[in-house]
Amino acid sequence: MNILFITADQWRGSATGYAGHPHVRTPNLDALAADGVAFLNHFSQAAPCSPARAALYTGLYQMNNRVVRNGTPLANRFDNIAKAARRAGYDPTLFGYTDVSLDPTGRYPKDPDLTSYECVLPGFTTRVKLPEHERPWLSWLAPQGLKFGDNAEAHLPVGVEPGRITSAPPAYSADQTQTAFLTGEFLRWLEEQVGERPWFAHLSYIRPHPPFIVPAPYNTLFAPDEVDGFARAESRRAEASGHPLMDYFLDTATTDHFIPGATSRVAKITDAEFRQIKATYYGMIAEVDAQLGRVFDAITERGEWDDTFIVFTSDHAEMLGDHFALGKGGYFDQSQHIPLIIRDPRQDALGRKVTDFTEAVDLFPTLLEAMDVEALHQPDGRSLEPFLQDAATPPRWRDAVHWEFDFREVASQFAESWFEARSTELNLSVTRTAKWKYVHFPTLPPLLFDLERDPENRVNLAEDPAHLRTRIEMAERLLRWRATHLDQTLALKELTPEGVVTTKP
């Protein structure tokens, strides 16, 4: 059985047609969901990219894999999906990136791989590596008459002053995007796959990750004045006063990462500009969906659709103007709620929509079960295969989701100075049920939200005496989660006179 593992960076879980979004257009993903299982309450375990992908690729929560920021090394001792695929007889091949910082243990101090968080997850064969500088894509554009000094120049809007938030398109066309480039490389590789050996491909798309710009016709596919509104307080000042972490985010965020050619602060973005960003983001999603259609058509034309296990998901999501923020990280659902579709050709599940809580760490054991290979460490996630076989919720399934976010700045110490705290104190843990969300910090004040009455997380009940019992119960739930998911790789083994005895968690 072939394995196609697709990630699209920074994709909000609600931003698909099959999930019922009123504006977003994703006909190809909708068709995939109709032919498989869509998980509607699926959450990432961390942010930004490296921490999110460490959990995704290893099946371990951040408290166990310890990748806390972009640039934190992923220890060699951990198993991952690529290593497991090799044990199963595949040659797992990467198209795009994995954002992994390699373990420096035993490496030469001047090894250039120790200067980047954009190395490749150990175990993958790299067909196309597309790091942040995007040079392979730029070199592909050059013979087509588009020569840019760097990717920042490539993403500038045409006919508009750099830094403006606009619907103006870039110089490259819809057939020349990074998504089209990676898709074309995958299709060429796919034609090389002959014989009886199944293939494993990881298509890791950068979009709809910023900068927010997209070519025609996607740049005007959505009108800014018609997109949905924002979850936020009545003003930036009110939002910032809700918690010291939001004060920090809203006071320090700049637009250079999000808007081509911009150098101002996110705090200066107007409501109309936020709406334009959202319209552009939805257009970026439509562009990725169109390229996914090429992928699915090619697999079908090869007669391999019914022999290909397909996963579509994201690493984390995007705030997109909610709470006056852009990007990812923190305690809001908008940053961590992500899409997930799984199509298992061995099952008859067609169009099922799962509303149970699922987590990114579940994909590691799910993929390993599909490949019929054992993990070399005890994952924190659980295989989703029962959902693919049966509509019933598996026994003892989770009734909450969890994520962590670390906002230390090891090199610059900027956050440490801002909060007057040690690096190890700048993190948070979230436990979220259908009704309650509790956020715990080592030194900053805790947060408690009643999601039924306050889905936008605007009223913190943590200091309300009437909700003290709930706060304690949620804190105890968080402690139980951490205690249950301490690394069990060797703790579930015992040496006896008869040899090694292993039990299940």
Helix content: 25-40%
CATH architecture: 3-Layer(aba) Sandwich
Multimeric organization? single chain
Number of helices: 15
Write the layout of secondary structure elements.
Layout: E1 2-8, H1 27-34, E2 37-43, H2 49-58, H3 62-65, E3 73-74, H4 81-87, E4 93-96, E5 101-102, E6 125-129, H5 135-141, H6 151-154, H7 178-192, E7 200-205, H8 236-240, H9 244-252, H10 271-301, E8 308-313, H11 333-336, E9 337-338, E10 340-343, E11 352-359, H12 363-371, H13 385-389, E12 401-406, H14 414-419, E13 427-432, E14 436-440, E15 447-450, H15 468-484, E16 493-496, E17 499-502
Parallel strand pairs: 1-7, 1-8, 2-11, 3-5, 4-6, 4-7
Antiparallel strand pairs: 2-9, 2-10, 8-10, 12-13, 13-14, 14-15, 16-17
Helix pairs in contact: 7-10
What's this model, at a glance?
This protein has 505 residues and is α/β, with parallel strands linked by helices.
Structure commentary:
- The protein is α/β, with parallel strands linked by helices.
- The mean pLDDT is 95.
- The strands form four sheets. Strands 1, 2, 4, 6, 7, 8, 9, 10 and 11 form a nine-stranded mixed beta sheet that branches.
- Helix 7 (178-192) runs parallel beside helix 10.
- It has helices at residues 27-34, 49-58, 62-65, 81-87, 135-141, 151-154, 178-192, 236-240, 244-252, 271-301, 333-336, 363-371, 385-389, 414-419, 468-484; strands at 2-8, 37-43, 73-74, 93-96, 101-102, 125-129, 200-205, 308-313, 337-338, 340-343, 352-359, 401-406, 427-432, 436-440, 447-450, 493-496, 499-502.
- Helix content is 28%, strand content 16%.
- The longest helix has 31 residues, at 271-301.
- The protein is globular and about 75 Å long.
- The protein has a single domain, classed as Alkaline Phosphatase, subunit A.
- A hairpin with a 6-residue loop joins strand 14 (436-440) and strand 15.
- The protein contains 15 helices and 17 strands.
